[in-house]
């Protein structure tokens, strides 16, 4: 059965792939994300200064002075190294939270769309309620009372994203569930789990990928915001959100590089992710 | 329509209930007792018990929830741990400050967003469309503080036109100077959403039969655009705008922290950092309620615009 369905599911995805590879925004976005992924995995390859090394005598060194390409911050730490190492936390937490949200959301959405009736009614009401709440506020409330470690952040963001993903998946399942191939599988006596995960799931891959990339952008956005107001990263961490908060007062002394550089780094990451999302959405919607 | 509104109101009550339970449950899983958290690790157990009793945090979770919600609906959220005064007093003044910021933001972003979206739609697939769409998308996803810090650098530090932050009191001019940078920061994020919706709505309206009829009747281009296209394109945009209020409210959190502006956002950020639980619960509950009301209004407008919902029984 599987070997028969695969070629059918593959042809449109191959077509999508060749269209995507021609898209400039898709390639540019991937370049940006790949760069920050490399920084997160192997920052030592790109910079050789320790991001935590303090040198108060060299406080606020201007860019391109004394071998500090992007200058130093209020503690004399290298701004370039910190910008590169700053990708680590967010490039781990945001994808992990997004994957969690997508897995939970896809399961909920499949159940709501395929099983319908009572399951759908109850879950839909709860989801509509959760969606109307600002994600960052609920996340903040949870992080205040729970231990604000990595696992908690991933769990909280993933949990808050799941309803949004479930809603999209539900709509996609509703469009598929009365098609012939689903009926055929049902009539040949396959159980609900098999129909949901083996028959329907591969055919709604497009919207799920779109949702994944869009949510990844929001996960970075949310995580950066939380870290900016002091949650989710340790004091002194080179994380961009926290660094911008810590260094923003230096601006008033006309020292822009310790805060503007991480802001540019963060913006380049979210914009790259959304270029990818936009390109994929354009191809999937066609 | 009436049936839809009633159903939607019912859902709003359910949402409000879920919100109150989420806020309450999340705040109640605080490890250790509240009294211990306030008095510190060296306080006597009797004092801890005493303060727990005063705050009403003993008893079953159910009775605690009932006590909290029955006071909350009457506007009594208890006393702030940090300020030792009624939460409601602080909440009210912060709410007013945030309202000023939000109103200025909407005054800036709504016309610009609609204009941008309309221009993009009229020049679909041309360079100006690409620029507006990509800029809008990029600004929409960039965290507010990353935009805010660039604005502070240019307009507060380099040009010295406005202060880098602070509270809005004093004359209208002074207040405007304090409010303008945070308002522009929030506008930057919202611009992309509004422009995108207006663009989509305008493109749809341009292709619609009524537009072709209007053109064939020989109406002038500006009249066709103004009366037939924009009016039809704008109503859904307004509905979307209301549903974006929850993003605007979330954005207040970082924007107000960035500009040290004493509204609800900064109040929440500080309460979270100080673990001032009654303040935090109340503020999240109020903001969540507000977001819910906005979503409700958005849904009712959308329904009213869509005859299939207006006259149908099922959504």
UniProtKB/TrEMBL annotation, chain A:
Q: Does the keyword Transport apply?
A: yes
| CC terms in the record's Gene Ontology section | plasma membrane
Record's signal peptide: none
Specify the ABC transmembrane type-1 domain's residue ranges.
87-277
- State the Gene3D superfamilies in the record: MetI-like (1.10.3720.10)
User: Where do the TM regions start and end?
Assistant: 26-46, 90-114, 126-146, 152-173, 193-210, 216-234, 255-277
Which keywords fit this entry according to its UniProt record? Cell membrane, Membrane, Transmembrane, Transmembrane helix, Transport
Membrane topology field: Multi-pass membrane protein
Instruction: State what protein this is by name.
Output: Unannotated protein
- Alphabetically, which GO biological process terms does the record hold? transmembrane transport
Q: Where in the cell is it found?
A: Cell membrane
UniProtKB/TrEMBL annotation, chain B:
Residue stretches in coiled coil: none
Cell membrane: is it a keyword of this entry? yes
Q: Where in the cell is it found?
A: Cell membrane
A single cellular component GO annotation: plasma membrane
Membrane topology according to the record: Multi-pass membrane protein
CDD domains registered for this protein in UniProt: TM_PBP2 (cd06261)
Principal place of residence: membrane
Pfam families membership: BPD_transp_1, BPD_transp_1_N
What keywords sit in the KW lines? Cell membrane, Membrane, Transmembrane, Transmembrane helix, Transport
Q: Which residues form the ABC transmembrane type-1 domain?
A: 95-298
SUPFAM superfamilies recorded for this chain?
A: MetI-like
Protein's UniProt keywords contain Membrane:
yes
Per its UniProt record, what Gene3D superfamilies does this chain match?
A: MetI-like
Membrane-crossing segments per the record? 9-30, 101-122, 134-156, 176-195, 233-259, 279-305
Recorded hits in PANTHER family, A to Z, give: DIPEPTIDE TRANSPORT SYSTEM PERMEASE PROTEIN DPPB-RELATED
Q: What's the name of the protein?
A: Unannotated protein
């Amino acid at each position: 059965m599987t070997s028969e369905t695969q070629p059918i599911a593959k042809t449109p995805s191959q077509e999508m792939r060749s269209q995507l590879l021609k898209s400039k925004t898709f390639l540019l976005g991937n370049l940006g994300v790949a760069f920050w992924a490399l920084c997160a995995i192997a920052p030592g390859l790109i910079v050789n200064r320790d991001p935590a090394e303090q040198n108060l005598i060299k406080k606020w060194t201007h860019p391109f002075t004394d071998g500090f390409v992007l200058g130093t911050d209020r503690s004399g730490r290298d701004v370039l190294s910190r910008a590169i190492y700053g990708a680590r936390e967010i490039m781990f937490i945001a994808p992990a939270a997004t994957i969690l949200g997508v897995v939970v959301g896809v399961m909920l959405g499949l159940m709501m769309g395929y099983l319908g009736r009572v399951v759908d009614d109850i879950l839909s009401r709860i989801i509509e309620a959760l969606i109307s709440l600002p994600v960052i506020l609920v996340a903040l409330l949870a992080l205040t009372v729970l231990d604000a470690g990595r696992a908690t952040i991933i769990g909280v963001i993933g949990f808050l994203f799941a309803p949004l993903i479930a809603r999209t998946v539900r709509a996609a399942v509703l469009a598929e569930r009365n098609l012939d191939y689903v009926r055929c599988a049902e009539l040949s006596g396959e159980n609900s789990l098999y129909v949901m995960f083996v028959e329907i799931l591969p055919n709604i891959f497009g919207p799920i990928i779109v949702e994944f990339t869009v949510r990844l952008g929001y996960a970075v956005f949310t995580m950066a915001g939380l870290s900016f107001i002091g949650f989710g990263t340790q004091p002194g961490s080179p994380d961009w959100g926290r660094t911008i908060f810590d260094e923003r007062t230096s601006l008033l002394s006309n020292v822009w590089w310790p805060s503007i550089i991480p802001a540019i780094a963060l913006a380049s990451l979210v914009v790259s992710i959304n270029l990818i999302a936009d390109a994929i959405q354009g191809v999937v919607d066609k | 329509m009436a049936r839809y509104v009633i159903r939607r109101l019912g859902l709003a009550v359910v949402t409000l209930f879920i919100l109150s339970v989420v806020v309450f449950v999340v705040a109640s899983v605080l490890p250790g007792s509240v009294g211990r958290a306030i008095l510190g690790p060296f306080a006597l157990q009797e004092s801890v018990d005493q303060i727990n009793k005063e705050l009403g945090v003993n008893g079953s979770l159910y009775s605690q929830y009932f006590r909290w919600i029955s006071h909350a609906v009457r506007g009594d959220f208890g006393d702030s741990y940090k300020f030792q005064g009624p939460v409601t007093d602080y909440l009210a003044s912060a709410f007013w400050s945030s309202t000023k910021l939000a109103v200025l933001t909407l005054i800036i972003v709504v016309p610009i967003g609609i204009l941008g979206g309309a221009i993009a739609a009229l020049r679909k697939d041309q360079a100006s469309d690409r620029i507006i769409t990509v800029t809008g998308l990029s600004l929409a996803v960039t965290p507010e503080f990353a935009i805010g810090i660039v604005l502070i650098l240019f307009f507060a530090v380099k040009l010295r036109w406005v202060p880098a932050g602070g509270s809005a009191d004093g004359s209208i001019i002074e207040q405007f100077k304090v409010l303008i940078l945070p308002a522009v920061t929030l506008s930057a994020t919202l611009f992309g959403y509004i422009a995108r919706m207006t663009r989509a709505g305008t493109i749809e309206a341009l292709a619609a039969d009524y537009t072709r009829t209007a053109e064939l009747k020989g109406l002038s281009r500006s009249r066709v655009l103004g009366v037939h296209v924009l009016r039809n394109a704008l109503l859904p945009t307004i509905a979307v705008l209301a549903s974006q209020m929850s993003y605007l409210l979330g954005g207040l959190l970082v924007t107000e922290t960035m500009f040290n502006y004493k509204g609800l956002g900064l109040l929440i950020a500080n309460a979270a950092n100080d673990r001032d639980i009654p303040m935090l619960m109340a503020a999240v509950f109020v903001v969540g309620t507000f977001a819910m009301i906005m979503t409700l209004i958005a849904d009712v407008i959308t329904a009213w615009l869509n005859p299939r919902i207006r006259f149908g029984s099922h959504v």
